[in-house]
Design goal:
Aminopeptidase, seven-stranded mixed beta sheet, 168 residues, alpha+beta, 7 strands
């Protein structure tokens, strides 16, 4: 993919990502910012995730975010219940505030363009997650409304969210 840099890259997942994935995600501060990742996060969760994403087809696209070749986060696109596409991402806590998420969202959108994936892309951030909101806005997403999402990391309670869309 042309959007990769000398430092940062998006790549398909590998089976040997399981240990690093477990270490990065098994952090309540990371899972609290997501709508689908449980806490605690065990190696078996990572193995199940890797098995799932390595066999993706159709409308699901997932990539590992790497820095200097090392996994630091994840990004993906998948269908929502309303048949629209939604992007999701997370970055390991040690890498927060370094511009990695902003770069990754832009690079992932470029990848989607290369793959000829068209149409609007939706996104949600937990209310209070201003860093993620800024990531989306820097990449052209526009706030459309407040919403709610169910979060496994928060015992499957419904959490207030902000909804965004990138028209393409």
């Amino acid at each position: 993919m042309t959007a990769n840099t000398d430092l940062l890259a998006l790549r398909p997942y590998r089976l040997d990502d399981a240990d690093r994935l477990t270490m990065l995600v098994n952090d309540p501060d990371v899972t609290a910012t997501t709508s689908s990742i449980p806490f605690p996060y065990a190696r078996s969760d990572a193995e199940a995730f890797l098995s799932q994403v390595r066999n993706e087809s159709g409308r699901k696209i997932s990539r590992a975010i790497t820095m200097d070749g090392e996994l630091v986060g994840a990004i993906g696109l998948g269908p929502r219940a309303d048949d629209n596409e939604e992007i999701g991402y997370w970055i390991g806590k040690a890498y927060w505030g370094k511009g990695i998420a902003s770069w990754a969202v832009g690079a992932f959108i470029a990848l989607l363009d290369e793959m000829e994936v068209s149409g609007p892309i939706h996104a949600q951030t937990m209310q209070g997650n201003e860093a993620s909101r800024r990531v989306l806005e820097k990449n052209g997403f526009v706030y459309v409304r407040d919403g709610a999402c169910t979060t496994p990391a928060r015992d499957c309670v419904t959490a207030p969210s902000h909804c965004f869309v990138l028209e393409r």
